[in-house]
Every structure is written in C-alpha cells, then in structure tokens.
C-alpha cells in the first residue's frame, strides 16, 4: 500500500540519493539541484517535505518551504535557514515530481501538503499560511491550474530566467 512520509534533512543518504535520481530523471540537467541544496530545503521546510513510496519504491516527492510571497529562490542555491523568511505567511512549493505521471500521485502529494499546511496553522508560534506560490515548468501549468493556482507576476520577473523559457510564477490564495 502506498504511503506518504515526511522527508527530513537527517534522513539517510539513500533516501536523498533516490530523490536526486528521480529529479534527474524528470528534469533537464540545467535544473538539477545538488543533494546538499535539496537537503537544506527540508531543514527550512520542516513539515512540508514528503516522499511517496509504494512497497519501498520512491514514486514521488514534494519539497516546500516558507518563503516571502512574490519572491522566487534561485535554482540550486542553498536556502539558508538564517536568511530564509521563515515567518512569512507564504509557502513556496519548490518541487513536486512523480515517477509515473497521470496516476493521481501528484494530486495526492499536493493534497497532503495542504493538510500539513492546515495543521501548521493551529500550532502555537506558527503564523497562518495565507498562500502558496511556485514556478510552473516542464509543461506543468495545466496541472497546477487544476489545483487552483493562478498565474501571477513575481516581484522580480528576472528571477524566472533560470527556470526556462516556459516558466510561469503561480499563486494559490488559501
Ligand atoms: C506535473 C506532475 C507532478 C503531475 O503529477 P501527476 O501525478 O502526473 O498528476 P495527477 O495524475 O495527480 O493529475 C492530477 C490532474 O492533473 C492532470 N494533469 C496531470 N499532469 C498534467 C499536465 N501535464 N497537463 C495537464 N493536466 C495534467 C491530470 O489529468 C489530473 O486531472 P483530473 O484530476 O481532472 O483527472 C508530473 O507530471 C511530474 O512529476 N512531472 C515531472 C516533474 C515536473 O515537471 N513537476 C512540476 C514542476 S513545477
């Protein structure tokens, strides 16, 4: 039976190697992020990063972390906890990828993220998350539109350049 479990920065190297391998399978080389960069997202995004596994096999992952609304982090750059705007009311969905598309896994991972986001709201000392943002790439705009995201203009449109020519900043108000 498939399971979704938290992906933590301290998880063993095999887990991170498999996330890296799946990332390399679904994206062209210019978008690949190194394992230390991926791990750091799980530090800043504690509680918002997950693995989808079926019989031990990695079928998908989701990496999200708090980030200032309207801003886009650089690709393959370490998101430092000290400088990350962790008090922001926006969650940046950095990456969601599946091994076998069109089987409902992407939607389930996203729904799980939404559940976590709703639970985080009721914990003490956590600001209420009011929106999610992302950069849609790889022909995924329609997928995100189905989930309620709408195209928006980032504060610095030039920051989208490293994400490719079809990149679109998208936002979901919660
Ligand atoms: C984009 C991605 C995450 C979608 O995940 P998925 O598991 O294939 O999506 P699901 O099967 O959950 O589909 C959910 C809905 O979106 C639709 N959908 C999925 N991919 C779509 C696409 N590329 N274009 C249009 N609709 C799409 C499905 O038909 C389904 O519609 P329905 O609810 O009306 O039946 C997946 O294709 C993927 O991993 N792509 C490579 C990595 C990537 O590009 N990630 C996005 C980075 S921004």
- Which regions have little confidence, pLDDT < 50, spanning 5+ residues? none
Instruction: Label the CATH architecture.
Output: 3-Layer(aba) Sandwich
Please give the share of residues in helix. Answer: 25-40%
What spatial order of strands do you see in the largest sheet?
1-2-3-4-5-7-6
Which molecules are bound in this entry?
coenzyme A
Mean pLDDT: 90
How many structural units, i.e. domains?
1
Shape estimate: globular
The N- to C-terminal Cα distance equals 30 Å
Provide the CATH top-level class: Alpha Beta
Corresponding CATH superfamily: Gcn5-related N-acetyltransferase (GNAT)
Please report the total strand number as a whole number: 7
- Please indicate the percent range of residues in DSSP E strands (runs of 2 or more): 15-25%
Major sheet details: 7 strands, mixed
Q: How many helices in DSSP terms? A: 4
Query: What structural class results from the helix and strand content?
Result: alpha+beta
Backbone CA Rg: 15 Å
* CATH-assigned fold name: Aminopeptidase
* SSE ordering: EHHEEEHEHEE
Domain N-acetyltransferase: 2-174
Pfam family, one: Acetyltransf_1
InterPro entries: Acyl_CoA_acyltransferase, GNAT_dom
Protein name: Gcn5-related n-acetyltransferase
Question: What does it look like?
Answer:
It holds the Pfam family Acetyltransf_1. InterPro entries: Acyl_CoA_acyltransferase, GNAT_dom. This is Gcn5-related n-acetyltransferase. This protein is of the alpha+beta class. It has one domain: Aminopeptidase (3-Layer(aba) Sandwich), CATH 3.40.630.30. The protein is built from 4 helices and 7 strands; from the N terminus they run E-H-H-E-E-E-H-E-H-E-E. A 7-stranded mixed beta sheet has the order 1-2-3-4-5-7-6, sandwiched between helices. A hairpin with a 2-residue loop joins strand 2 and strand 3. The longest helix has 17 residues. It binds coenzyme A (COA). The site of coenzyme A has 20 residues, from strand 4, helix 3, strand 5 and helix 4.
């Amino acid at each position: 039976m498939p399971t979704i479990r938290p992906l933590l920065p301290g998880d063993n190297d095999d887990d991170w190697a498999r996330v890296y391998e799946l990332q390399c399978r679904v994206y062209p080389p210019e978008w690949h992020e190194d394992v230390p960069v991926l791990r750091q997202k799980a530090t800043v995004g504690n509680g918002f990063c997950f693995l989808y596994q079926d019989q031990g096999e990695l079928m998908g992952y989701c990496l999200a972390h708090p980030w200032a609304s309207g801003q886009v982090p650089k690709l393959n750059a370490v998101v430092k906890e000290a400088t990350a705007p962790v008090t922001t009311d926006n969650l940046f969905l950095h990456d969601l990828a599946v091994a076998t598309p069109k089987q409902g896994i992407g939607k389930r991972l996203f729904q799980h993220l939404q559940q976590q986001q709703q639970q985080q709201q009721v914990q003490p000392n956590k600001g209420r998350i009011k929106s999610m943002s992302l950069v849609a790439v790889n022909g995924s705009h329609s997928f995100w539109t189905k989930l309620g995201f709408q195209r928006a203009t980032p504060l610095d449109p030039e920051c989208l350049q490293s994400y490719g020519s079809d990149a679109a900043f998208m936002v979901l108000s919660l």
